[in-house]
Amino acid sequence: MAEKGTSLFSPYKMGKFSLSHRVVLAPLTRCRALGGIPGDALVEYYTQRSTPGGFLITEGTLISPTARGFPHVPGIYSDAQVEAWKKVVNAVHAKGSIIFCQLWHVGRASHQVYQPGGAAPISSTNKAISNRWRILMTDGTYSTCSAPRALETSEIPEVVELYSLAALNAIRAGFDGVEIHGGYGYLIDQFLKDGINDRIDEYGGSMENRCRFLMQVIQAVVSAVGAERVAFRTSPAIDHNDATDSDPLNLGLSVIERINKLQLQVGSELTYLHVQRELGRPGTEDVVVQTTRTWRRAYQGTFICSGGFTRELGTQAVAEGDADLVSFGRDFISNPDLVLRLKLNAPLNKYIRETFYTHDPVVGYTDYPFLSKAKQVDDWHHSDAFELI
Ligand SMILES: Cc1cc2nc3c(=O)[nH]c(=O)nc-3n(C[C@H](O)[C@H](O)[C@H](O)COP(=O)(O)O)c2cc1C
Q1: How many CB atoms lie within 10 A of CB 182?
Q2: H or E element: which one contains 306?
Q3: Which part of the chain is the NADH:flavin oxidoreductase/NADH oxidase N-terminal domain (predicted)?
Q4: Cβ proximity of 112 and 121 under 8 Å
Q5: If you take atom 22 of ligand 1, which residue's CA is the nearest one?
Q6: Would you say 299 and 256 are in contact if contact means Cβ atoms under 8 Å apart?
Q7: Which residue's CA is the closest to the ligand 1 atom numbered 25?
Q8: pLDDT tens, position by position, 294-339
Q9: What's 59's DSSP letter?
Q10: Cα of 4 to ligand 1 centre, how many Å?
Q11: For FRET with 285, which of 170, 174, 356, 377 sits at 20 to 30 Å CA-CA?
């Protein structure tokens, strides 16, 4: 149970970071980093969403050229990318926010056109994602994913190392830390989920084996940049990209148990665990809340929850101790000043799904309106949302 009176606008100490509120920008792929380099459009977009003492997580950011499965998503594996990210990070810091870089490898959720030399995407398996799921191509059309190639056991350490090199680059770019993307049917999830992982080596079969890749990645990144700069995102119950598991509750608990143990071994908590919960299908909301609550109670550290939160649900989750922080995705796309709007209980702009993944640097990206200036100034005087702690 949280302390009495805890709300979305209570301050929170997340490891060494002092946050003034608990409304987090969720990681959101937006396909505006032309050629994989974050440019001025990203500087503007992230600056718009920064608040003093706020916390932002970047969109999924590629750890290597093989990590790609979308057009125009940024990377963090080349010097040019590191230099370009510095401008984003500096602008966000200038507005007083903390920012983590989300480290992403899509694994088999890719297509040969996105792979160096047109090779098959890498994965835990040779099985392709079914045609129930579609991949966005560079010309804006949708296709099916290409058949992947299962990594040889001997190749896995190199892939683990890509995560730690990317984490070092992120710190070099000035990020406050990194969030390892372990959900949504991407590479790490392709090892975790028993509906995908069909390996017969030490990375498949038992729970211990399916968690091995993930734990090696976390360990490597922690060794590279320190546990207090590392976070992990997971979605055990989400079947996106065919990422099914026969027992998601237990999978989540097993991952958490291993992270708790690692934290004890290294003598420091990770910065946080970020759970993306299922968007409750009608009639399943209670199960979703209960499952997430079980994971929350099991994890020894800061817990961020994401998925279908409104002002009311977020306030409730924080007040009841179901989350320390709440991340908002779609509403943050369409409301650059979401934090202020939630604070004031002001109406929200509606998001436009058609421009989620288009490439215009302005339209559907940085042109969603702020509350009118006059209203902001007036409301500001009646609000303590932005007092720095
Ligand atoms: C356009 C879009 C892009 C997304 N990109 C990412 C991503 O890069 N990494 C990630 O972990 N989740 C991603 N997500 C999931 C969001 O972080 C979030 O969990 C999801 O939108 C549910 O939260 P909401 O109900 O507040 O929108 C994306 C979601 C959307 C709508």
Answers
A1: 26
A2: strand 303-306
A3: 7-348
A4: yes
A5: 307
A6: yes
A7: 308
A8: 999 999 999 999 999 999 999 999 999 999 999 999 999 999 999 9
A9: E
A10: 30
A11: 356
Determine the pLDDT at residue 282.
74
Tokens of 342: 């939630």
Ligand 1: residue of 279, 330, 358 to mutate (most ligand atoms within 8 A of CB) is 330
pLDDT at 385: 41
Burial code of 99-128, b = ≥16 C-beta within 10 A, e = fewer?
A: bbbbbbbbbbbbbeebbeeeebbbbbbebb
- Residue found under tokens 């959900």: 183
**Residue 381: predicted pLDDT:** 44
Q: How far apart are CA 158 and CA 155, in angstroms?
A: 6
* Closest ligand 1 atom number to CA of residue 102: 9
User: And the tokens for 213?
Assistant: 């890749």
Q: Name which residue sits closest to atom 12 of ligand 1, judged by CA.
A: 27
Estimate the crossing angle of helix 40-48 against helix 79-94, to 10 degrees: 30
pLDDT attached to residue 373: 59
Residues in the chain: 389
- What tokens appear for 352 in the block? 């436009």
Handedness of CA 386, 171, 82, 77 (dihedral sign): negative
d(CA 196, CA 127): 8
Which of 304, 306, 311, 368, when mutated, tests ligand 1's pocket best, judged by the most ligand atoms within 8 Å of its CB? 306
In whole angstroms, give the CA distance from residue 272 to residue 303: 6
Closest to 339 in 3D by CA, of 47, 21, 13, 11: 21
Side-chain-side CA neighbours of residue 222 (13 Å): 22
pLDDT of 379:
52
Residue with tokens 């706020």: 54
Give the active site residues: 186
Low-confidence ranges of the chain (pLDDT < 70): 1, 280, 373-389
- Position in ligand 1 atom list of the atom nearest CA 60: 8
Residue nearest to ligand 1 atom 31, measured at CA: 330
Pairwise CA distance, residues 88 & 173, whole Å: 9
Question: Greatest CA span in the chain, whole angstroms?
Answer: 64
pLDDT score of 387: 34
